Amino acid sequence: MLVRSKKPWDVPYSDVTPEAAYHSRREFIKVAAAGAIGAVAASVAGRADAAQASQTLAPLPNVKKSNYVTDETDPVNSFEQITNWNNYYEFGTNKTDPARYSGRLTTRPWTVKIDGMVAKPGNYEIDDLIKNNQLEERVYRHRCVEGWSYVIPWVGFPFKTLIDKVQPTSQAKYVEFTTLIRPSEMPALQTAGIPFPYIEGLRMDEAMNPLTLVVVGLYGKMLPNQNGAPIRIHLPWKYGFKSGKSIVHLQFTDKQPRNTWAVQTPNEYGFYANVNPHVDHPRWSQASERVIGKGLFARQPTLMFNGYENEVANLYRGMDLRRYF
User: Fold this and answer.
1) Is 137 helix (H, G, I), strand (E, B) or coil?
2) Are 145 and 241 in contact (CB under 8 A)?
3) Sign (positive/negative) of CA torsion 270, 271, 275, 278?
4) Alpha carbon distance, N-terminus to C-terminus of the chain
5) Phi and psi (nearest 5°) for 163?
6) 169-208, pLDDT tens digit by residue?
7) Closest to 206 (Cα-Cα) out of 281, 277, 257, 137
8) Rg of the chain over CA atoms, in angstroms?
9) pTM of the model
C-alpha cells in the first residue's frame, strides 16, 4: 500500500479555483470590492485581454495531479490575479505592463540551448520537452522580494529530470540560465534600468532539489506570456526574481553565475535569494507579506524559506544566511 506523507509545499487539488470561476467577471468584481490590493484593482483595464488570452491557451496533455497533500489554508489565486500582477521588466516596470504588452511575444518555435559541462549538449525543442516529460500540477507559494505573495497552480516537471538527461560532468557546480532578448517584441529593453539578457543561476544541489520545477503552464494550460512563456524555472523557497522567465539557454559551469540583480544592486540582492523573514531588504522589512487577493491591508508573517524549510534547510546548513542572502 502506498502511503503518502503530508508535505507543506503543495495544496489539495480540490482547493484550486475552478476554471469557470477564474473566468467570471462577477467573481473579479467581488474580489476587487472586498479591497483586493492594487494588483487586482489595476487589472481592470487589462482583464478583457487576460480573459481572451486564457481562452486561447491550449490545454497541456496528460497533466497529473500532485502526489502530495497538505494542511495549507491559503486559497489558490485566480487566473486573473496571477496573470495581471507580474514582474517582467522586458515588457515594463509596472506590475500591469507584462499583461498589456507581452501579447506580441512569439513563443513558437522555441529552442533551449543546453551546453557547458554536460555529456549531452544540444538544442532542445520546447514541445519535445513537454511531450517527453510527465507533467504535473504543483500548487506552490510564490513570494516576491517586494513583499507580496501568491499561491499558484504551476504545471511542469522536475528540473532534475532534465539535468539527468543532459548528464552534467563532475566538474559542474552551477547551472546558469539566460532569458530571451528580442527587441522587436520586448518594448522595455532600453528603459527598464537593468542589463539584458536576464541572467540567473543555481548551485547544482539547488537545481537537483525535488521542489525545483521547470514550468511550462499554469491552471492546466500553456504558460501565458506575462508569466514567462514558454518555459521558466520556479523555486518556491526563493524570492521570485530568482525564477528566470522565457529561458533560451542553460549552461552548466564550475563558476558561480553573476545573476542580474546581484550585479546591478549587490547591496540589495544576493545570489541565493532565499526567503528569510530575518534578513530585511535595505529599503523594507521582509518579516511580513501582502497576499494578493486578501485585501489591501491583509498581511501575514513571512515563513522561513517561504514555508519549505523541511525540504531545503539542509542545503544551507552551516552557512551564514545574513551574509549569503
Assistant:
1) strand
2) yes
3) negative
4) 42
5) -60, -45
6) 999 999 999 999 999 999 999 999 999 999 999 999 999 9
7) 257
8) 19
9) 0.85
User: Nearest Cα to 200, choosing from 266, 245, 151?
Assistant: 245
Q: How far is Cα of residue 160 from the mean position of the Cα atoms in its chain? A: 16
> Measured between alpha carbons, how far is 66 from 216 in angstroms, rounded to an integer?
16
* CA quadruple 153, 78, 88, 283: dihedral sign: negative
- Give the angle 231-114-164 at the CA atoms, nearest 5°: 90
Query: Strand 213-218 vs strand 232-234: parallel, antiparallel, or unpaired?
Result: antiparallel
Q: Cell digits for 15?
A: 482547493
Contact of 117 with 168, CB cutoff 8 Å: yes
8-state DSSP, 65? P
Residues comprising the chain, all counted = 325
pLDDT tens-digit profile of 44-103?
334 444 444 545 899 999 999 876 544 456 789 999 999 999 999 999 999 999 999 999
Give the chain's domains with CATH numbers. 13-144+151-269 (3.90.420.10)
Q: Cα-flanking dihedrals φ and ψ of residue 251, to 5°? A: -125, 130
